[in-house]
Amino acid sequence: MDYSVYLFDFDYTLANSERGIVACYRHVLDKHGYTGVSDYDICRTIGHTLVDSFEMLCGEKDRAKLELYRSEYGKKADEIMVDNTFLYPQAVPALEALKARGRTNGIISTKLRSRIMGTLERYNIVPLVDIIIGGEDVTSPKPDPEGVLAAMARLGADKSGVLYIGDSLVDAGTAKNAGVDFAAVLTGTTTAREFDGFPCVRLMKDLGELI
């Protein structure tokens, strides 16, 4: 399994930001009286947009309220997210090995690019990542292929030479919609069986199996 471009999801693929994400959701949910949402429920929404996640968690349909919740989440995330985001032990070795082979590394995520950069800077690995497409860089979030296609266009990459790696069905759908190969990693909340409906060139326990 060798490609010229390796594009990664971020949350639950390269990094575990569960602590920060749950705390930000709790901040908003508690404030607005949503007491029946478990941490597991929250974690299962990771990878979706904030507005979609709040709709799933709260059953709220009012767009103005959902935008308010998104805004409140964002303000809390500005305070705590980077300090509560931790790269998986296998992430840096995988990125280093790919760079050593002359491959291109990218990140395509619904997470804000600024927050991803904050984590890369905290771990001093900015040079290992060639391109980041975050939530603020697209008009249509995953599983729409806009982010992947934008990265490919900027890199001059052909679909046959691109692998997208992610932990969720949103990621699997993104790769399928972009027409690129997909490798699943089981470091999130999605089980191996849940990926059965999508073509995966590889199903990995963690990124240590990528190289």
Automatic annotation (TrEMBL):
Pfam families the record matches: HAD_2 (PF13419)
Gene3D superfamilies per UniProt: HAD superfamily/HAD-like (3.40.50.1000), Putative phosphatase, domain 2 (1.10.150.240)
Biological process annotations from GO: DNA repair
GO MF term set: phosphoglycolate phosphatase activity
InterPro entries in UniProt: HAD-like_hydrolase_sf, HAD-like_sf, HAD-SF_hydro_IA, HAD_2, HAD_sf, PGP-like_dom2
GO cellular component, one term: cytosol
Protein name: Phosphoglycolate phosphatase
Organism listed in the record: Sporobacter termitidis DSM 10068
